[in-house]
User: Which sequence fits this backbone?
């Protein structure tokens, strides 16, 4: 089994627990790096790792809730819980960005020297390597399981990796040039970068809660599956779709001759449903049967009453 296949086989809960453990490790390493050097850039990196920890814990809770089966109070399941995780993570990132920016501006107004740069940078690089490896595995699993929460946590970790790379470069340049102002400038750049990422996650979460349509490539697969059944006596219309966490839904009308028996029509509908679910994993199809000469109209004034 390849490394990518192994990563895809891992369940989101397993990787989120690993994310919590790695976050604790990186907090320790980056805090030690800041303590050794006194760099506000490394301090900003450590603060972002605190956000990683809080986000991973919340994501684990939300993924666990999303896995619950449908019940009386939630007949369509709990899949949207993952969007709350993505939104929470975005808000946490924004809070961290504000804190980092505040500390950086204060240091910019009163520059200080940094010490033991080599040891501090080595600790930062080690923690970033752990984050990069985990983020890669999480992205593989997120695509396999269509987990919004897992993908959000993975992309946040990748942001952390790039942030750490910028901090390492900045602190290294400070050590070489002795430009003390460069350290807080790097921290401000870190704050702006993660602020952008936080806003993106919040926006994506809000879009998910609003039942957005399926991706164009997924709709193309649905159209291809329906074309297998189209005939001069059979046609499909009013195809609409939505996403709810890892679950995908499509609703449509299937027109057929009025002379067909109910059993014949139901058998064909079952075949269409099976073809759609085979073409798009995780899809739930709702198909309304209509005679060929009957049209359903939406958007009329009486529909709004």
Assistant:
């Amino acid at each position: 089994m390849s490394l990518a296949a192994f990563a895809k086989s891992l369940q989101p809960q397993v990787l989120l627990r690993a994310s919590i453990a790695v976050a604790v490790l990186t907090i320790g390493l980056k805090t030690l790096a800041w303590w050794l050097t006194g760099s506000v850039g490394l301090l900003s990196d450590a603060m972002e790792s605190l956000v990683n920890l809080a986000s991973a814990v919340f994501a684990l809770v939300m993924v666990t809730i999303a896995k619950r089966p449908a019940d009386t109070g939630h007949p369509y399941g709990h899949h949207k819980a993952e969007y709350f995780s993505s939104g929470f993570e975005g808000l946490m990132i924004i809070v961290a960005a504000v804190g980092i920016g505040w500390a950086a501006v204060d240091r910019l107004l009163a520059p200080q020297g940094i010490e033991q740069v080599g040891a501090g940078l080595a600790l930062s690089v080690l923690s970033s390597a752990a984050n990069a490896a985990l983020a890669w595995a999480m992205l593989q699993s997120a695509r396999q399981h269509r987990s919004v929460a897992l993908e959000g946590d993975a992309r946040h970790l990748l942001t952390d990796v790039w942030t750490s790379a910028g901090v390492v470069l900045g602190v290294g340049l400070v050590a070489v040039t002795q430009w003390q102002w460069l350290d807080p400038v790097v921290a401000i750049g870190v704050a702006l970068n993660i602020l952008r990422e936080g806003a993106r996650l919040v926006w994506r979460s809000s879009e998910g809660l609003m039942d957005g349509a399926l991706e164009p490539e997924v709709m193309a697969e649905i159209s291809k599956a329906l074309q297998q059944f189209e005939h001069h006596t059979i046609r499909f219309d009013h195809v609409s779709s939505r996403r709810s966490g890892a679950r995908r839904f499509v609703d449509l009308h299937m027109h057929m001759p009025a002379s067909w028996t109910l059993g014949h029509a139901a058998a064909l509908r079952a075949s269409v449903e099976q073809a759609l679910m085979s073409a798009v994993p995780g899809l739930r199809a709702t198909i309304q049967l209509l005679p060929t000469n009957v049209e359903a109209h939406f958007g009329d004034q009486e529909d709004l009453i």
Q: What stands out?
A: The chain has a mean pLDDT of 78. The CA atoms of residues 6 and 273 lie 31 Å apart. Residues 148-177 form the longest helix (30 residues).
